[in-house]
Please model this.
Amino acid sequence: MPINDFSLHPLSWQPDPALLTRPRYLSLASSLERAITSGTLPPGTCLPPQRELADWLDINFTTVTRAYDICRERGLVYGVTGRGTFVAPLPGRMDCGNASVIDLSAVQGFPELSSRFLIETARDVMNRDYTRDLFSYSERSGAARHRSAGAFWISRLGCEAGPEETVVFPGVHSALVTIMLAFFGIGDALAVDEFTYGNLIEAARLVRVRLVPVEGDGEGMLPDALKKAAGRQRIKGVFLMPTCANPTTVTMSKRRKDELSRVISECGMFVLEDDATLVPDGTGTFLGRLPEQTFYMTGATRFLAPGLRVAFAVTPKRHLKELMGAHHRLTIKAGALDAEIMSELILSGCAEKLINLKIRRAKEMNAVFEKTFARERRAAKDVPFFRTVELASSKRNGPDIERELLEAGVRVCHSCRFAARKNPSRAFLRLSLSSVSSKNELQHALKTVKRYIFDR
Model:
């Protein structure tokens, strides 16, 4: 029986002992997860010491330890040496006034699955003899080890690129802006999908590059539409996301890539290829088809840890020196510590393990999505970390819809954020499946969105 007087020394969390089932450590972990995801235990709460909680529940100390370890692996709690165990901020929740908002706007890539691997890798890196060298200037294209890791990762995706052709950038967005500034003049045109990466739209405005939206279908940009657009005006390049395009989730077939490559070759355009492939599907890349015209950027590393600002880019050899100069003038270089951590994840095989873990979790979350929105099933083989829900014609504009859903407790992205033309022909919501910590939380958020769409 408990030996402490908890009326005089109350615990921050007092689960009901009568509700524990066997195995007790799993039951206790589930109870703690519910208390955190429901907001009963807000972020920053110091949890009871393990021995005191064991005393309260009249169970073995190791049972509490195992329950805490499970929640730590799920990214729900974290420990501080000498201070205790604390509730972590949930990846999918943020404060909005006094309400707890579930964030389906940011595609986080299931950060709770990465945290333990990242912390362990970072600690390992920080304890190495050469770590001090990471805090000084080094090669502007990235250290040889980092470029080798990038080349290895790219080869995993079916492309052959040597370290000498691989450049380390602080994120894909940085690479895109650098390429536009280095190879596009004021007023030059870049062809894009009708709905494209939202930050590219804003960046193009800043650097005075014109975006030309090109019609597409369920397999991506239409080759004939691109050819017609190039006939009407001089298009210098085309931005393509061939795998699970943001925000539409469209994935190109091998045939579509071949057809687009022929048009691009005939018109002499650059290709800015943002590749978010998780598992190679055998369809190849534009870099493999048009190596002298393609600026290739990996999108897979963003799913390992978006907070590590690292991306790998491959450039045509004849443009390498020019791109390197622009990279140095704009950003000096990528952060060497981030690049070292990312390189270690890749070369140790940990990145591959993480991708597989995240694919399994993505399959589970997609099943939750398709159970809620049965009409939104997809046939593509890739497993998206976000999905779309079509909206019927409405008098409410995108910002109004986002605001009303935010007031209902869910943050989303409306398609207006990604529209490259002024009056798009359709409207939809992009919903992240990878920013919440549990299937129950995702289901709750999706049901809120569904009620909003169909009950109005």
